């Protein structure tokens, strides 16, 4: 186990390198770019035996990676915001064709108006794509989740997105513990399951009539749901092998006797931790739930953690227009008809908006104030 | 309701455009060779799906590949289109 000081992009690249990826398809986009830069250097230096496919668009990048995966290669790509939107068509193909692709997404706000700042809008846009989505709190999470993602993807034959925020994580240096290559290789045995086989040719992605389409989709949904048990067991095994502190679907922080819970995903979890510590010192019974797996959504596990609290503040760095924050909507659905807590969905940090400890404290105070409406989303930072 | 036994990767037999109850295609008409001696061998080149080939007996049609477009019957004598429906049954 090595300790290094690296950016989130380098952590993603290092995770993919330790996983011994064989094909990388990539089209330059910021802030995902440095991850590719680092991977291409590993390839150039001969440290990673990987085919780097340069393409003319993000759509082609994922298409190239999908083809490689169908041929049985362990494949990886990185993108963000507009690139992810352009990939959307192929993203659905990859999930429907059950290919274990792993993709890093350096979350960035979506146009229009054009923005280059961190936000979860791009990942949220892929909610229904059939990809398993993991969110990272810090650079250690990025590397741990990237390695675990390959295991999850290959076991379930379902692609996995590893989300980390642009700039806040992708361009910020943090201490990361790096596991040994041999141990990661043993943790991720390469079990090729090529769909393209010269000796047994098949027509892949055939036109499917209604009598089979539903069955395919049912099986795809079952595979995604299986991740609810697989993600925690892979994390536990990872922690045992590498001495890590990776959580399963969720992590609860100081939730023992909490009356108020903050629920968040991504980098804002770290900030919320500081606030929880500060408020606990003042005697306030507050805790934090970190959502690592957003798709599949761990509704049962969330309910177990939240059913006794009085207030829930959900921090959403995204907006689903006409509905509210995506995480808040899912949590309200998970807790429907159970308990009588106030659930305040807060839209915060859009397009790089400020979301420090004092901002989160204001949202927490607001949840407990009488003018908080439990069925509405609050916009913070207007 | 029983879940159907399907491959993990949605796929069909080689050459199949579609997955249907007959593992093949949804034709309205199928070509039939009625006068083999009149069939022009060049018609093989006209078939967009490679469903025509030649062996010692002459031109043969592979119905697993044929989508029933009728180009062969138009381009060559000795082939006619015969009404047929092989697609899924249901309301259209």
Overall description:
The complex is a heterodimer of chains A (382) and B (92). A seven-stranded mixed sheet of chain A has the order 3-2-4-5-7-6-14, with helices on both faces. Chain A is globular, with a radius of gyration of 20 Å. Chain A is built from twelve helices and 17 strands. Chain A has helices at 8-18, 33-44, 58-70, 81-96, 121-124, 139-156, 181-187, 210-242, 268-281, 299-306, 326-334, 357-368, and strands spanning 2-7, 23-26, 51-54, 75-79, 102-107, 132-135, 160-165, 173-178, 203-204, 207-208, 250-253, 260-264, 286-291, 293-295, 311-316, 342-347, 377-379. Helix content of chain B is 10%, strand content 24%. Chain B has two helices and six strands. Chain B has helices spanning 43-46, 71-75, and strands at residues 11-12, 18-19, 29-33, 52-55, 58-61, 79-83. Chain B has a two-stranded antiparallel ribbon with strand order 3-6. In chain B, a hairpin with a 2-residue loop joins β4 (52-55) and β5. The longest helix of chain B is centred in the C-terminal third of the chain and has 5 residues, at 71-75. The model of chain B is unreliable at 20-24 (pLDDT under 50). At the A-B interface, β9, β10 and α8 of A face β1 and β2 of B. β9 of chain A pairs antiparallel with β1 of chain B.
